[in-house]
Design goal:
Blueprint lengths: L1 E6 L11 H4 L4 H14 L3 E6 L3 H14 L3 E4 L8 H8 L5 E5 L22 E4 L4 H12 L1
Helix pairs in contact: 2-5, 3-4
The structure holds 1,3,4-trihydroxy-5-OXO-cyclohexanecarboxylic acid.
The site of 1,3,4-trihydroxy-5-OXO-cyclohexanecarboxylic acid has 10 residues, from loops.
């Protein structure tokens, strides 16, 4: 069955971006890992990344129409986008929120709120890219 792994702004630079916080795995490697983990679990995983908020909203609206499960790392939009809150509210299949770092433990106050969490069945943070594997396992377990 189909699962979308959706990634928000700046995650395309994974591996180059602040590796001391986000690790050295590149975005391309993460995307390939998610597809491999998914096939092991019997999931048809599609991985996307965008720096354009409206594009993420369009993907989420389609996931709502199709009742597709979503693994979402909305990056900085997580912390302040009410349009993202509203888009997540419309999902009917499971939504798992993932963060590579642990925003709730980072010094910037703005990272301590999430508009995604109220709609997520599970929040995974601070486990690096392995958090995506755990998210896919959770969805596969149904
Ligand atoms: C992030 C955490 C966010 O606070 C940050 O804005 C990101 C990445 C993470 O995966 O750790 O861009 O979502």
């Amino acid at each position: 069955s189909k699962v979308l792994v959706l990634n928000g702004p700046n995650l395309g630079r994974l591996g180059k971006r602040q590796p001391e916080i986000y690790g050295s795995t590149t975005y391309a490697e993460l995307a390939a890992l998610c597809v491999t983990w998914g096939s092991t679990l019997g999931l048809d995983v599609e991985v996307r990344q965008t720096n354009h908020e409206g594009e993420l909203l369009d993907w989420l609206n389609t996931a709502a129409d199709d009742a597709t499960p979503v693994v979402l790392n909305a990056a900085a939009w997580t912390h302040y986008s009410y349009a993202l809150f509203d888009a997540c509210a419309q999902l009917t299949a499971p939504l798992v929120e993932v963060h590579i770092s642990a925003p709730s433990k980072r010094p910037e106050e703005f990272r301590h709120t999430s508009v995604v969490s109220p709609h997520a069945v599970l929040v995974i943070e601070g486990e690096g890219v392995d958090g995506y594997r755990r998210a896919l396992e959770f969805i596969a377990a149904g």
